[in-house]
Known about the structure:
The complex is a heterodimer of chains A (345) and B (337). Chain A has helices at 5-27, 42-49, 65-70, 75-82, 115-129, 147-158, 178-181, 186-192, 205-220, 243-249, 251-267, 274-295, 302-308, 314-344, and strands at 57-60, 100-101, 106-108, 135-140, 163-169, 172-173, 176-177, 196-201, 226-231. Chain A is of the alpha/beta class. In chain A, strands 2-3-1-4-5-9-8 form a seven-stranded mixed beta sheet, sandwiched between helices. In chain A, a hairpin with a 4-residue loop joins strand 2 and strand 3. The longest helix of chain A is centred in the last third of the chain and has 31 residues, at 314-344. Chain A is globular, with a radius of gyration of 21 Å. The relative contact order of chain A is 0.14. The mean pLDDT of chain A is 95. Chain B is an alpha/beta fold and 337 residues long. Chain B folds into two domains: 2-199, 3-Layer(aba) Sandwich (Rossmann fold); 212-335, Rossmann fold (3-Layer(aba) Sandwich), CATH 3.40.50.920. In chain B, 41% of the residues lie in helices and 22% in strands. Chain B is built from 15 helices and 14 strands. Chain B has helices at residues 6-20, 31-34, 36-42, 54-66, 85-92, 95-98, 128-132, 145-157, 172-180, 192-195, 227-241, 259-269, 284-294, 314-320, 324-335; strands spanning 2-5, 24-29, 47-50, 70-77, 108-113, 138-140, 162-167, 196-199, 212-215, 220-224, 246-250, 253-255, 271-279, 300-306. In chain B, the strands form three sheets. Chain B has a seven-stranded mixed beta sheet, sandwiched between helices. A five-stranded mixed beta sheet of chain B has the order 9-11-10-13-14, with helices on both faces. The longest helix of chain B is centred in the N-terminal third of the chain and has 15 residues, at 6-20. Chain B is globular and about 60 Å long. The interface between A and B is large, with 63 and 58 residues.
Amino acid sequence: MVADLWKLYERMLFSRLFEGEVARLWRQGLISGEMHLGIGEEGIAAGVTAHLQDGDAMALDHRGTPQLLMRGIPPISLLKEFLGLPDGLCAGQGGHMHLFASEHLAASSGIVGASGPAAAGFALAARYLRPGKLSIGFFGEGAVNQGMLMESFNLAAIWKLPVLYVCKDSEWSIFTYSTRVSAGNPSERARSFGLAVLEVDGSDVEAVWAAAGEAVGKIRNGAGAYFLRARCFHPEGHFLGDQVVRFTRSPVKESLRMMPALINSLFKRGGAPIRSRLESLSIFLSDVARSSRANSQKTMDPLRNARRKLVNEPARLKEIELRVKREVAEVVSEALAGKERNQNA
Amino acid sequence: MRRMTFAGAIDDALGQAMSADPRIIIFGEDAPGIRRTLFVRFGKERVLGTPISESAFLGAAVAAAMGGLRPVVDMGLVDFLGVCIDALLNQASKVQAFSAGRWLVPLVVRCACGGGYGDGGQHEQSLWGWLAHIPGMAVVVPSNPADAGGLMLAALEHGTPVIFLEHKLLADYWLESLGSGGRKTVQYDIPAVGARGIVPNRWQPLPLGQAAILKEGSDLTMVSLGVSVHRCLQAAGELAERGVQSEVIDLRSVAPLDKQLVCASVAQSGRMLVVDEDYEGFGLSGELAAVVLQAGINFRYGRVCTQETIPYARDDEDIVLPNVQRILSASLKLLEN
């Protein structure tokens, strides 16, 4: 089997442009609360979901928009949900962190690590009710420090559940660099529970597709639980408005906002000796700097990497890109018209 | 006197206590970033970042407190306590009773709570009634900067576990992070006097369990806490224009509960309206009714609470959470003959 890169690219592109519009609407204030985008994870979402069938389940985290789009949830119902409309996917009651699509057996949670037990449970139900079907649990590498996720690995192993755990490794646990708070590494942990482990570059959608295909095929045949670790990069940080990302994009403005209080802390009476104060200030600033270096990184963009392999057919590429752009624009204008109708009603 | 934000006041009081007591340490997810002023001032040994491992670090905080430290744990949102409730339900709250009072857990758990910014039902709960239901824990819910700093100092001196809840509409850094970050296109109904105000130059502890009368009146007693206190004050102002004098009580802590002050006020007004952003069923609003009934007071009763899972859609959310309109209509109903 060979990956259909054109199809994967089109799915990733739709997701990317769709979420770009979500970001724009969020900045305009039309979407409330937090907004965690899957931008940067499209290679993982596309490579894994391409292998799913009716009856397979997905346990998603707070960043599940790409997977839902790629599983065939109508984009208009997702966008209307984000806009809080009564004809959104969850009638405006859930929002982007709490998306549920029962006909696709797709459930989200905004609680880090909660997709672990959920994926185990979907897999258990599949074994009894839908033999040959499986579940996927998506989470970030920060979640591997959650007890419930480790407990799920154990359950998946001892019950030999048909589940694929997908660790989307962005190297950042919210605003903390993951290696600062994690011992060992995620793959070793999964391996120690007896899960079969695969590692892949998440910005290479064909590699994800191949690894996920191998795992899914074996799981359907009763091989038990798999763990797929795929590296990725979030250009928007943890969520839209991420302070670290803002710091790197407008360092002067953000420094003026943040630094006076920190300088005050350096000299305030009572506290640690000046040497330790300078040390902690430098730790804070070096994490910001680390993130800013990461921000300049383009090589982890799954779309860019896929597109480079497709440029030898420029006409076909152009046709897809124009069409997807038009499709996304149509979804946006339909959703906004719905919002207007709702406000006038 | 100084002017401070709600969140600034809490960190300032905490800083005052930390410089006096080296046993106080802070830890939680992203704590060096979120508490960066304290991180710089007190260094990396006093402000520790944790993995996303609530069960482990809250559980460890309980025993660290038993071992002699004074941990202040940053839990993030109160909703996340669901991940690690054992540390509070079966450990921290039980030690004093199980050891016949010989061993205490001087622990403060800081959580952001409350809604009104469109983040959905898994990130906007209040849960103070659910927490105060457990014997052996104090639950504090300040409504303004001066109280918040004083209550933090009292929480640190309390000696037994205290859950310290900061409403996100009052704590600017939470709202900045969770809803408004980097955009100026969204507005929230932020009570100005709750989010920023005058605080003392040097903090004194404000004892837990002392409610405050924010407005005097003899026709109706409104009992509330957190952001809802400010909604009550606004409603009371509108009622005053119609000739109704309401008394507004800010509980400031759910446990211990200032039963005396509530009973005295209701005995005089004969009417109690509880305005509680937490869930209506089996919680604070029912408890207050029971307390006043047990005191043998005759009164009329009403409540404005959250009755269902908080919807994501902003318009729906504004209806589900206590608001001035709901307070007004519930008040007028209580005043009918």
